[in-house]
Amino acid sequence: MNPYVERAQQYMRDVLDGTIPTCKWTRLAVQRQVDDLQRQPSEDWPWVFDADMASRPCAFIELLPHIKGKWARDGRLLELEPWQCFILTTVFGWVHHETKLRRFLEAYEEEARKNGKSAKGSGLLLYMLAADGEHGAECYTAATTRDQARIVFDDAKAMAERSPGLRTHLGVAIMQHSLTVAHTSSKAAPLAAEGSTLDGLNVHFALLDELHAHKTRAVYDVIDSARGAREQSLLWTITTAGTDRSGICYERRTHVTKILDGVITDDRVFGIIYTLDDGDDHFDPAVWIKANPNLGKSVQLDEMKAQASKAQAMPSALSNFLTKRLNVWVSGESPWMDMRAWDRCGSKEVSIETIPDGVKLYMGLDLAQKKDFAALTLSWEEDVLVPGADGVYAPERKRVWRVCTRLYLNELAIQESGNAHLAGWARQGYVVVTDGDLTDFDVVADDMRKYCRRFDVQEIAFDPALSMYFAGKLIEEGLPLVEIAQRSVFFTPVLIQVENMVREGTLQHEGNPVMAWMVSNLVVKQSKFNELMAPTKERPENKIDGPMAMLMALGRALATVESNEIQQGFVIL
Description:
The protein has 573 residues and is α/β, with parallel strands linked by helices.
């Protein structure tokens, strides 16, 4: 077997059997590769794994010299670690079974500082310039400042200067501000500018270093849009964590986590994240390898301990330690739902059409007219047979809550949405599309009236700030609408209860992928002064209207059930 692929596969085995401690996202990236390798080419999956193509960048990089530190003094060549072989062989190994063009057009790699990002990135720049077989290749290292953009470029230049073979065999010419290959008309250079000054590019390869430091998305967008004329361009991001969850870096990170979590499908993007798991002790050396795959190599344990001691002694140093050395994004918000657990709660038996007529249920309503969704959730209790661990139904029934959510959006919002999946979801019927540029509340109202006639609707919880006028008309018709103030004191218990129900399998939903996307968008912001929590979103485009309707419905339902149980308890006493 190819030695680089063999190293990568051993790494995969070590990750999945726990020999190498890794975080959730690393394991999911490895599992994704394992699953992909089991697939056969088809109309929907035209990719094959080519071990020779996978090994080419690895073999090339290991011919390059170290340029810094003791290994440079000793004249040693770069040696890839197994985790680096995994990343490189995965990105470069997958090709179209007919054209042999690369599958992955974008790679997102996130790990703590000092894990060899610059050395590997420099090797990638030289490979894509001189050995990828592309004529007229334009290869760039891009950043918001010239100094940052030159870090990887200058390392690549130094490697080229110490590698006579690059010049004699591959024709690499070294200039002050660029590297060129005359016989293929290719070049590599650093880029540092606002997006408006980067027009006219025709990018074959771009390395975005420390994307978290980009204050705007301009550089990313211009480079991404400059790749359309290339058959297999590659945009590679290597970054550490930051603090700005509204920026382009966290947007790309979120896209990757949703791919790894199975919330969305994007076969053209590779992603891997090395960080700590929720609940890990930041000061436990045993977990540091999760964010530092090169621990013991380029990252020294003693230095990490010194940085940890400093962070413990100086609160001002803690944020820097978390982001730079442990690759932890720092903010006051955290994801709400374990999406794997949410997916397990999906059931084909759950749908509005199969709800028993006359059943007692609670509804939640979240309204918006323009770019947000309108959402209507129906929730009810039911005795069901549930599968056991072996997939066989348990002999006894289990009391569960079931939820179905109707999502409404106007056609203009779908057309203008930056979410590439939304139009497809609408075509498949997961979203009710209303005409025009405003969501038609009459469609929502008609559904509410229909459900109130068919079911024993106890309450319809709604946010008065968004829907008071609309609700007033329905209240006059006799619909049981109940105002819910959007406060932490209401949402804290239901956030905890629903999360626990999902983990325990006592909540079932219909498996709507739009709802899953929204649930994955919801983050919890905890008060600095008490234990109260509030549901929110990190970015305007991260819609959470469906989960908000669900939380209002279940919040009222669960509170009413608890109140009845308490009253019954008092009667018995």
